[in-house]
Specification:
This protein is an alpha/beta fold and 190 residues long. 51% of the residues lie in helices and 17% in strands. It contains six helices and five strands, in the order βββαβαβαααα. The chain has helices spanning 42-60, 76-95, 105-113, 120-130, 140-168, 178-185; strands at residues 2-7, 12-19, 27-35, 64-68, 100-103. The protein has a five-stranded mixed beta sheet with strand order 3-2-1-4-5, with helices on both faces. Helix 1 runs parallel beside helix 2, helix 3 crosses helix 5 and helix 4 packs across helix 5 (140-168).
């Protein structure tokens, strides 16, 4: 499976593409940062980000796109810019019929490092180790985009399979939601 991860931002939008599957070796396909100048007006910044993402989508043809879910911050301008850049990636993928998943920063950190509270350096180090890179991806936005792709390969794909299996199950005996399937597998534990 090929996943394109997007760490959205107006000044630096990280984009990383990884091939792999749970339990299999991961391979770096492409990583870059789409940059825009802070002194450009918003419309031109968004257009540049959209073009960059579109170009990468066309070049790598991913099976899925994973975008960082925007979380609450104190700086509303930062949240708005991040949300706008993320929406561009979501819309570009949707135009191509590519499934999109959103992952929170703590989900990504936990998937890659084992701790939802890992710092940027720990995430970068683990991304480098998992992809057998000689050096850390720079800037951090590049490493974060790769981490999003890895997270989706490991977590998103299995959640999708659980949901698909539940949807095919007979309605009266097996729960249909992925959460219900997990609870049933754990013996009813919540």
């Amino acid at each position: 499976m090929r996943v394109l991860g997007v760490d959205p931002g107006l000044t630096r939008c990280g984009v990383g593409v990884v091939d792999g599957a749970p339990g299999r070796r991961l391979t770096l396909v492409r990583v870059e940062v789409v940059r825009t100048a802070p002194d450009l007006d918003l419309a031109h910044r968004l257009l540049a980000i959209e073009r960059g993402i579109e170009e990468i989508l066309d070049a790598v043809e991913p099976d899925a796109v994973a975008v960082e879910r925007v979380f609450a911050q104190h700086n509303v301008r930062t949240v708005m810019g991040t949300a706008q850049a993320g929406a561009l990636a979501i819309a570009a993928a949707a135009r191509r019929g590519i499934p999109v998943a959103l992952h929170t920063p703590s989900e990504v950190k936990a998937a890659v490092t084992g701790s939802g509270r890992a710092d940027k350096a720990q995430v970068g180090a683990m991304v480098s180790r998992l992809l057998a890179l000689d050096e850390l991806p720079r800037p951090a936005d590049a490493a974060d985009a790769l981490a999003l792709a890895i997270c989706h390969l490991w977590r998103g794909a299995s959640s999708d399979r659980l949901a698909a299996a539940a949807a095919l199950a007979p309605s009266s005996r097996i729960p249909r939601s992925a959460a219900a399937v997990r609870r049933a597998a754990l013996g009813g534990a919540r």
